[in-house]
Specification:
7-stranded mixed sheet, single chain, Metallo-beta-lactamase, Chain A, about 20% helix, globular
């Protein structure tokens, strides 16, 4: 399995662009899969530099209804007219972020794209193909990230706190190994891993993605006690972790202090082979 980071908040070099967003390209089980498309056309520009042909992608998964994961969707549909695009039915609802100046910004997906013929709406446990499945409707055993504060949605013409029911996670099984991918882990990374365990009866071998331990809106991070508790849980799972994006650099450093080589950071341009 090959995983290339097309978009992330940081970059491995000045030749590869970065932005607040996430896009991962995966080759597995003879398939070419894209997990999120960042905030803009950047995923496409970086893909060309990393020898990834977007027109050959078989499946695109949008992890949730925020622009930093689905902002490049129009570009993807322009460049690829054959791939199936898997999106949760609630992802096209209106989502907002409260900025430090108390302005409420729209951070959702472009509504006019939802009727595109390539888009397939998913469900709580959605089977894409052999070894490729989606998982949502996560049980909230542990409190969600504090960094969810300031994120809202529109319901019945009112602005309410986001429930993140639109978030879905991808897992891929190949050669006896399972990789769990999460876009932002708004439902709580511990809750998502436990949800995977409920479904499969074992822990994943690898966990990759954003863990939402920091907030772009507030600029704050989860407290060290919470991060240390998550670190202990991660170690107990025996999995290898690759993180990025909304985890935040300072929380990552704290995780790294506890976990050592059990966790690594993915910047745009990086490549992982499993």
């Amino acid at each position: 399995m090959i995983i290339k980071t097309l978009v992330e908040n940081t970059s491995i070099s000045k030749d590869i662009g970065s932005e607040h967003g996430l896009s991962l390209y995966i080759e597995s089980n003879g398939l070419k899969i894209l997990f999120d498309v960042g905030a803009s056309e950047l995923f496409f520009e970086n893909a060309k530099k990393l020898n990834v042909k977007i027109e050959n992608v078989d499946y695109l998964i949008i992890s949730h209804g925020h622009y930093d994961h689905g902002g490049g969707l129009k570009t993807f549909l322009r460049e690829n007219s054959r791939a199936k695009v898997f999106i949760h039915p609630l992802a096209f609802e209106k989502h907002y972020a409260l900025r430090p100046n108390d302005k409420l910004d729209f951070i959702g997906l472009e509504d006019e794209l939802k009727d595109n013929k390539q888009i397939e709406l998913t469900s709580d446990q959605f089977f894409i193909s052999k070894g490729v499945q989606l998982l949502s409707n996560i049980i909230q055993r542990e409190p969600g990230p504090m960094s969810n504060s300031g994120l809202f949605m529109e319901k019945n013409n009112q602005i309410v706190e986001d429930t993140f029911a639109h978030e879905q996670n991808l897992f891929i099984e190949e050669d006896g190994k399972t990789i769990l991918l999460t876009g932002c882990a708004h439902n709580g990374i511990v809750n998502i891993i436990k949800g995977f365990y409920d479904l499969k009866g074992r822990m994943p071998d690898y966990v990759i993605g954003g863990f939402h331990l920091s907030s772009k809106s507030s600029g704050g991070n989860e407290n060290f006690d919470t991060i240390d508790k998550i670190s202990r849980f991660f170690i107990d799972t025996k999995a290898k972790y690759y993180t990025c994006h909304c985890t935040g650099l300072e929380p990552y450093k704290r995780l790294k202090e506890f976990m050592g080589d059990r966790i690594e950071y993915l910047s745009a341009g990086s490549e992982v082979r499993i």
